[in-house]
Amino acid sequence: MNDWVDILIAYREGKFARYFHGLTPKLLVGASQVPLGKVFDNDKIAHDFTKQLFQEMQQYDEDGLIVSSNHCEIHDGPVMQFTEAEWTENSIGTSFETIWNSYGDDIVSGDFGISPYDREILNSIFE
């Protein structure tokens, strides 16, 4: 489930130029589905997949990069990005509960917020 790594690297490289503070976890979840944006079969699968993705992001520490979050006023929730920093247990700066409370309903319903702009970039990443 490491598609999110490629997506956050693309964000770091400026490929998502419309976004200034990071990408939403719901976009990362939806972009990690095959096919892109596939709706989960049920709430439990959506929850478990999102939790696994969060845990991977929380533990990521490679090539001097860790995942950190910022609070986005537009989405009223955390957005994720890679940051150059020393990893600590709390580096990610958010909790799974915060992510799920902010985006869980959208993730369960399949509303991943993947715009045509995002889809074009995501398709170019995974070609």
Sum this structure up briefly.
The chain contains 5 helices and 3 strands; from the N terminus they run αααβββαα. It has helices at residues 3-12, 25-31, 43-59, 96-109, 116-125; strands at 61-62, 65-72, 77-84.
**Main sheet: strands, sense, barrel:** 3 strands, antiparallel
Helix content: 40-55%
Oligomer state of the chains in this structure: single chain
| Classification by helices and strands | alpha+beta
Task: Please tally the β strands and state the result.
Answer: 3
Rounded Rg:
13 Å
Order of helices and strands: HHHEEEHH
| General form | globular
The percent range for strand residues is 5-15%
Low-confidence stretches: none
- List the strand order in the largest sheet: 1-2-3
* Mean pLDDT across residues: 96
What does this structure look like?
The protein has 127 residues and is α+β, with helices and mostly antiparallel strands. It is 46% helix and 14% strand. The chain has helices spanning 3-12, 25-31, 43-59, 96-109, 116-125, and strands at 61-62, 65-72, 77-84. The protein has a three-stranded antiparallel sheet. β1 and β2 (65-72) form a beta hairpin. The protein is globular and about 35 Å long. The model has no long low-confidence stretch (mean pLDDT 96).
Features:
single chain; 127 residues; alpha+beta; three-stranded antiparallel beta sheet; 5 helices; globular
How is this fold's topology laid out?
Elements: H1 3-12, H2 25-31, H3 43-59, E1 61-62, E2 65-72, E3 77-84, H4 96-109, H5 116-125
Antiparallel strand pairs: 1-2, 2-3
